[in-house]
Design brief:
It is a single chain. The chain is of the alpha/beta class and about 500 residues long. The protein has a single domain (about 1-500), classed as Glycosidases (TIM Barrel, Alpha-Beta Barrel), CATH 3.20.20. It is about 40% helix and about 15% strand. The chain has an eight-stranded parallel β-barrel with strand order 1-2-3-4-5-7-13-14, surrounded by four helices. Strand 11 (about 370-375) and strand 12 form a beta hairpin. The longest helix is centred in the middle third of the chain and has 26 residues, at about 235-260. It is globular and about 60 Å long. It starts with a helix and ends in a 7-residue tail after the last helix.
């Protein structure tokens, strides 16, 4: 009787969840109580953090190349310390990275040994168009990435490719002011058209902009913005954000026209904001912080500016230059899936709070007293991963893809060459467990999971090598010393087992 009543009152969707559990899309794919059978396990990198070879085969200079290691890196990333070329007295780790450019076959073979189903990587814009505004691409750059994709496919690995992972050609910054200029939309469209044409059949999954919301936190790194004294920084940031959002929609349109089989995703630096307390001012602060974070994906997923964003721009007197064509392009070219990075949740406190402050991954806020922190002061919150997955899926009802998650830590090489990174295993185990709960118990539709930094690479935030994420150790230190030799950590075999069992064996 109760089943009949439930069906009549609550509807078939709820009853399905009630009677059979909320496995949702996982069940439809034939995976009864876990991840879908075609779940895409793998790892994620970025060109500027691993490739090196910054001046090889016609590559031009980009913003990410001129971000130095050391005390000035943050100021450069913020756009308040102008640095548009290499300067004496600084070390620039992106010049060499981990030399993936010359070692990609070795690295991809190691990924294959772990059983990767997918490899997230990015393209260096300046390898394809050295200045960014050329009409014809650089063939050497196109050929390099084609070779990488074919190497992936040789090993049965699906490339997941980010068009722009913080890369902006220096020429476009000097000549046009970076993404504050609408002309970059056309340059990006040209880049997208070349990529989707050249790599048709080689790449199925694309992301337009990495962590697009980083414009509001590290604007030089996120959008090539350098601010002049007295300039309205917020207005410039939202203007650049608008131009990137329109460019992303155009890329989505171009991709689907060239190859209807490709899937285009957006990407944000995710992590739900908690209120520091149940004090209404703290709850409101968290609400506003979440809106700032979701704004970009709201547009990319829904196809229009949400009312809270329109009101904010109106109140602050910001004109993003919205045209009728912009509105149409945004509305008609929403993304196929939502991808995101997750490292931690955040905490917000309103006016009058005495909450202690902290900062992790460029997101400042109140310190959560209930969470432990990493060696770099990032909150560790596995349950928050499940909360964030639910928040995103509830908001968008589109498939999700976790494209960054990992622990930056100092590793010790023992006398016998072993690296016993149990702390990394423990971190990932806890996060994969809660991710699985989000799929099996909550019904989140999840396409895949790529850990950040399957191989040690240069940290985006600090420029360090000592902040290691990988299953594969790279012999290189913060000053650029080392052989660049690769070696397996204890976590290598652990992740291999996780993939082989589709996330069932996390021991």
């Amino acid at each position: 009787m109760w089943r009949v009543l439930a069906l009549g009152i609550l509807g078939p969707w709820f009853v399905e969840r009630l009677l059979h559990g909320a496995a949702g899309p996982a069940r439809e794919k034939g995976c009864k109580m876990g991840f879908r059978d075609d779940f895409l396990w793998g790892g994620a990198t970025a060109a500027n953090q691993c490739e090196g070879a910054y001046n090889v085969d016609g590559r031009g200079l980009a913003n990410v190349d001129v971000m130095p290691h050391g005390k000035d890196r943050f100021a450069v990333g913020m756009g308040v310390r102008k640095m548009l070329d290499f300067e004496d007295g600084y070390f620039y780790p992106a010049q060499t990275g981990i030399d993936f450019y010359h070692r990609y076959k070795e690295d991809i073979a190691l990924f294959a040994e772990m059983g990767f189903k997918t490899f997230r990587m990015s393209l260096a814009w300046t390898r394809i168009f050295p200045n960014g505004d050329e009409t014809e691409p650089n063939e050497a750059g196109l050929a390099f990435y084609e070779d990488v994709f074919r190497e992936c496919q040789k090993h049965g690995i699906e490339p997941l490719v980010t068009i722009t992972h913080f890369d902006c050609p220096i020429h476009l910054i000097k000549e046009y002011g970076g993404w504050r200029n609408r002309k970059l939309i056309d340059f990006y469209k040209n880049l997208a058209r070349v990529l989707f044409t050249r790599y048709k059949g080689l790449v199925k999954y694309w992301l337009t902009f990495n962590e697009i919301n980083m414009i509001l936190h590290l604007p030089f790194m996120g959008a090539g913005l350098v601010f002049e004294e007295g300039e309205d920084k917020k207005a410039v940031e939202y203007l650049a954000a608008h131009n990137e959002l329109v460019a992303s929609a155009w890329a989505t349109k171009i991709a689907h026209e060239i190859d209807p089989d490709v899937k285009i995703g957006c990407m944000l630096a995710a992590g739900s904001y908690y209120p520091y307390s149940c004090r209404p001012e703290d709850v409101r602060a968290a609400q506003l912080a979440n809106q700032d974070n979701y704004f970009f994906v709201d547009v990319q997923s829904r196809g229009y500016y949400p009312s809270y964003a329109l009101k904010k721009l109106e109140h602050e007197g910001i004109d993003v230059g919205m045209t009728d064509e912009d509105k149409q392009i945004l509305a008609e070219n929403t993304v196929d899936f939502i991808s995101f990075s997750y490292y931690s949740t955040r905490c917000a406190a309103g006016e009058g709070s005495d909450a202690p402050k902290t900062e992790g991954n460029a997101f400042a806020g109140a310190k959560n007293p209930y969470l432990k922190e990493s060696q770099w002061g990032w909150a560790i919150d596995p349950l928050g991963f499940r909360i964030t997955l639910n928040d995103l899926y509830d908001r968008y009802q589109k498939p999700l893809f976790v494209v960054e998650n990992g622990l930056g830590a100092k590793d010790v090489v023992e006398e016998d060459g072993s690296i016993n990174d149990d702390y990394r295993i423990d971190y990932l185990r806890q996060h994969i467990e809660t991710m699985r709960d989000a799929v099996v118990e909550d019904g989140v539709d999840l396409l895949g999971y790529t850990t950040w930094g399957p191989i040690d690479l240069v940290s985006a935030g600090t420029g360090e090598m000592s902040k290691r994420y990988g299953f594969i150790y790279v012999d290189r230190d913060d000053a650029g010393n080392g052989t660049l030799a690769r070696s397996k950590k204890k976590s290598f075999d652990w992740y291999k087992k996780v993939i082989a069992t589709n996330g069932e064996d996390l021991s």
